[in-house]
Amino acid sequence: MRRLHPLTTIARDAGRISLAGIVAGCIALLSVATTEAAADARIIRTSVESRFPESAIVRVEAAVTRPIARAYFQYRILGRRAITQSQVRVTGAPGAMAGSHVFDFSKNYLPPGTDIEYRWQLFDDRGQEFVSPFYAARIDDERITWRTQTVRGIDVRWSRGDEVFGRALLNVVDRAIVAAAAEVGATPPRGLRVTLYGDLEEFRSALFKGSFEWVGGTFYPEERVIIAYAPPTAQGLDIARRALAHELAHAAVHQVTDNPFGEVPSWLNEGLASRAQGTVDTANTDALIEAVASNRLLSLRALGGSFPSDADEARLAYAQSASAVSYLVERRGRGSTYALLREYANGVTFDEGAIAALGSDIDALDIEWRSWLAPWAMMKAPPFDDAPEPVGHTASSPLDAIRDLMAGLLGR
User: Model pTM?
Assistant: First the structure.
């Protein structure tokens, strides 16, 4: 899963950092005494106190020569241009002022591991403006003692498990990076921070408050952060393998298509990510089987936007997306998905991209895919009537016969 429009989260005040950098693993308490551009104001101290996962408070103290009439807190994600601004209340005695901004993480979410820059804008009673330099801080979850390693240019942090599990987990990350890049047809994503929670409740509490309970990982593209669940067990390694390959594929897609004008259809993005996992989820296969049999497949046009919130409908959406991408790879070649991504990188509409890359609009592509998936799905017949049975296999039921066929269609 990828999160398209996240906003807030920070970590407990852990001391002081300079403008030169960020204290690893914590939101830093910044103390700066500088010669500012404006002579009538000087920042004495600015700090970030984390109350993660609920809130964070950013404070400022300044020396001033005149009363401050208005003050603003401004921040941006490191490496991004867009600035978010909020007016803050100030108090003060002659020659001094103090103010603060409160992040409410239930309304404005930033995932742990996000680097931000922030500054203060002040206006005195004569309307004269003062703008501080940007200060650096890292949003983090300081409830956890993190273990950290770098894999192929990606910062990886995990919370649970011994040294043996840690080595195995890093190997899983390495393989997932390669698998994601290969599926998307891009260089491995870089400049990411991957945060892996070994405890389920801690993981869920760290996610965006609107996340679904069935989510095992999320990629936050603006912040370039991945959060995933990785319990310190053999099964946990498999959970991490699938989640990381999926989310890293989203990161690779974002890396090659990021533009201010348009997005990639969700069915293409999620289909590539699902295939990067390398294994077919039985529950997804069954959902696709039943939808084909009952003639209630969702259209690719409908799957271009957000997926359903209902777990069963979402499962079908993911299964259809993987199937549609498998159709493209099998019938049109792997270059077809690469061509689609190149077109969508230009900010074109879904139809414009499909026509330019494939010669078919989304509706025509939908018909082609359905015909490839199961010809009998186009007919109005009772479920499982005349369902073909694989040669050389005696199925215990018609559903088993179709399951075998669908598993082949979803595979590589």
Answer: 0.81
Q: How many secondary structure helices (H) and strands (E) does the chain include?
A: 10, 16
Please tell me the distance from the alpha carbon of residue 314 to that of residue 376, in angstroms, as a whole number: 24
pLDDT digits (tens, 9 = 90+) for 174-223: 999 999 999 999 999 989 999 999 999 999 999 987 666 567 899 999 99
Give the model's pLDDT for residue 38. Answer: 44
Residue 305 in contact with residue 323, Cβ under 8 Å?
Answer: no
- What domains sit in the chain, N to C, each tagged with a CATH number? 13-138 (2.60.40.2440), 144-258 (3.40.30.160), 261-412 (no CATH)
**Residue 6 binned pLDDT confidence (cut-offs 50, 70, 90):** very low
Six token digits for residue 60: 């400022």
Q: Which amino acid type is present at position 348?
A: V
User: What is the spatial distance between Cα 51 and Cα 399, in angstroms, rounded to a whole number?
Assistant: 52
Separation CA 147–CA 166 (nearest Å): 8
Alpha carbon 347 to chain centroid distance? 20
Q: Which residues pair with 155 in a beta bridge?
A: 150, 193
